[in-house]
Design brief:
9 helices, six-stranded mixed sheet, Rossmann fold
Length: 284
Amino acid sequence: MPLSPTLLARLRRLDRWLREGRGATRPGLTGRLRAPAAELVDHRPYQAGDDPRYLDWRLLARLRRPFVRQGEARGAGAVAVALDCSASMGFDRKFEVAAEVAASLAYLALEGEARLSLHLLGGATVPMGRGRGHLGRVVAALEGARPGGAVAVAEALYGCAGGWPPGTQVVLLSDLLEPVERLAPLGRLARHGHPMEVVQILGPADLAPAATGPCRLKDAESGDGREAVVDGAAVVRYQTALTRHQEAVAALTRRHRMGWVAAEATAGAEQALLAYLRLPREGR
C-alpha cells in the first residue's frame, strides 16, 4: 500500500490547509502544536497529569477553576497509530482503507515534526521515530501487513502503551466488531493521559448483509461455524443488534472523553481521514 503520487499530492494540500489554520487540528498532525508554556498564547482547562508549573494562578484565584497556559511549540507531539489486523478487517476493503488512512496520518504527523509509532495489532510494531526516513519504515510495514486471526484489539493496544511518551495522541483504526466490554482497556488508556480517538471502518456486509437464505455462517476469526437461515427477519434482527452495539460504543467513548467516528469503507480513505480530522477535540 504505497503512497501514490496522487495521494501524496492530496496530503500535501491537506497539510498546507491544516498548517494555515483553515481546517480541524489534531495533536501532532499540524506543523504548529499547542503545548503548555510559560509564554502565554491561550488557556485550556487543567487536566490530570498536566505540569502544575504551567497553571495560571491568577486565573485560578479569579474563577476558582484551574487553567493551563498554552504557547506554541514545534515538534512537541507524539502520535501512536494502531491498525486492527484481525481477520474481520479482511472483508469489503476495510483493511486497505484503514491502512491508507494510517499512512496518511503518519505523513501528516511526521510532516508536522511529531514523533510517531505504528502498531499493527496482531503483528509488528514500528517504534517511535520522526522524519521522512521513518515514514518509509511505516509505509513498508503497512505494505507487508495482512489481516488474519483473532485479535483482542483493546488489550493489544493497551499492551503497547509502555513505550509511549506522556500525552501521546492515540488513533485506533478498527471495525470494532467485538463485544463492547472487551473494548474497556481503551478507557484505561484515556484515563492514563493518552488522548484516545477511534476511526471505525465498516463495510457494506457489516451495515446491510444480504438475505441469502439457508447458509453456513463462519466466524472469520475463530473459524467456528453453524447452519443458519439468513432471511429478511434475520437481517432486521442483526441490524437492531448492530445499532445497539454502536450505541454502546458511543456511550463508551463519551464516558472516557474519546473521539469516535464511524466511516464506510466504500466511501474510501480520503473521506474517512477527513471525518477523523473534523472530530471535535474531546475535552482537550
